[in-house]
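Sequence, structure tokens reproduced for absentees:
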Amino acid sequence: MLKRILAIGSVLLALGMTAALAAPPSAGPAPLPPATTATVPVAQPVAPPTGQSPTHALTEEDLHTFFDGMIPYALHNADIAGATFSVVKDGKIIFAQGYGYADLKTKKPVIADRTLFRPGSISKLFTWTAVMQLVEQHKLDLDADVNTYLDFKIPEAFGKPITLRDIMTHTAGFEETVSELFLQKPEQQFPIGEYLQKHMPKRIFPPGKVVAYSNYATTLAGYIVQRVSGEEFTDYIANHIFKPLGMKNSTFKQLPPPALLKNMATGYKQASDPKPTPYEIVEAAPAGALASTATDMARFMMAHLNGGEYDGARILKPETVKQMHSLNYSPAPGMNGFDLGFYQENRNGHQIIGHGGDTEVFHSDLHLITDANIGIFMSFNSVGKDGAVEPVRVAIFRAFLDRYFPYTPPEEKTVANPSADNAKVVGYYVASRRKDSALRLLFQLGQTAVVEQPDKTIIVDMLKDFSGAPRKWRNVGPLTYREVGGQAHLKFVADQDGNVDYFTSDDFIPVELLQKTHGLEQLSNLKLFGIGTILVCALTVAIWFGGWIVRRRFGRPLEMTDRQRQLRLGSRLGAFAYLVVITGWIVLLTAIQVDETLLLGGALSPWLGALYVLGAIAVLGGLAMVANGVLRAIGGPGRWLVRAGDIVLALAGLYGLWAIWAYGFANFQFNI
């Protein structure tokens, strides 16, 4: 957590901590141009929020001091090309400014009211607003089976239908789906309905129970808006949200119209790598296709902060906005959860809702401090060095809060003996936002470890400070932990038998739960038995090949029956098949890590097909390994060392069979 910022020097120091994660390459990113202020009317200075005594008043002048001192430094050190910001208060834009470059080749600067960025999943807030407009008109029911509104059917599961309320709180229960989420060319797009039927994911949780963020479910909601309204989704948003709010520089169309496309910021991996990324085509358009300016986004924020009305135009009734901004799902008592579409980000004693958004290269955040009538939008057009944009954007917002809403959290004493709770919570956890069919291993390898420290605190390896070091958490209540030196909490939730089921935290956005793994599913066991199986198979194949050379050289054939010889051959071929399958998946997962467009663009089907065939062959080899080991243990032939070796190989074969089933290595599932 960044400490309270009392002066611009401490702001720079705080961002320096973030930038340590992303030191620029030796050549350095291109120098930044002067900040470019939007050509829009700016509101008069406003007083500090009631009940607060901030060191700094939220005024245009102080916001310039804050952002102008922070952002150029952060962009340079994080290797980010450009950024755009807007801040609103009480129905007025009090700050709107661009920084850095919209285009590195032409040195075109970012201008807040002219340069379009891609806000990614912030697009979902427009989809949810559209849904609620139709709810107001009694054309949609939040609690009706979504199949009521579709021309295809979501299959039954768990004895309960999916509703729009489930979708808007991301508790529909779908597994993750990523294939063809992003496309390479505009002409590759196909109708939303076709995408939804082609990529329908498996349902892995009962509706309304487990939060698991879903682009698919949001696209489903957008398709429902399209069907019920009778308008194409992009036209509906333009006619019923953009037009009333005067958002003339915003579109869901891909590509945007030429007049907007010429002002579109170019996306980059890093500012020091001027190779541009082509305009990203989001097939799941309602979930992430928006392009907009900071000042247009300010209009949308002001409408939501002002009960659905901006500048005389109303897009929602006040009671509808209140419903959208009210808690509808909580992962644990007192923790941030989901309103209707917005997620909660409460911090520094204030009620905050918002949404983030990420394409491959654009990264954005929208925050509404509802009890202070303030909104802030930010967007960046680069990933930055080593993904530095993520800690930078978090640091900026928390620095903003600490500057204008300083906060001393209430004291909470550490429990006298944390060992009992620590024993329950330590272990490995996997995110609820995952795939449980194809590519399941990719998500299982990303498990989070909770580890007890000698001083009886715990660390969670996914939660680090801005220097990259794991933060410590102390036990302050039943299965409840607080950040040492901070205000954030972890809450572990137990099942009816008292065993920890999952944990959540108000330190990260509540789009998923971290569910505890057990037995062979734990990452430690996955590594232990996985590596063990690889070593056993590799050693077996090596000895098999070496033995063949020796026997051939000295003319010493194996003394076995035909049946024994066939089983032995099958077991060795099985070990070889295991190695081929493992190598194939390692290569595939490594390729995805290097270039995620392979996953998002839908180019993996041929490779998956080949790996699935190899997996099916490996099943036969595994059965031969087990059968050979059993027969060797019972009746030989061979001495005890030879028998022991085949028994160990049989155990490796058993684990391999389980892994093929558990991680879907032969499920022929291409819908990823």
Q: What stands out?
A: DSSP finds 19 helices and 20 strands in the chain. The first strand starts at residue 36 and ends at 37.
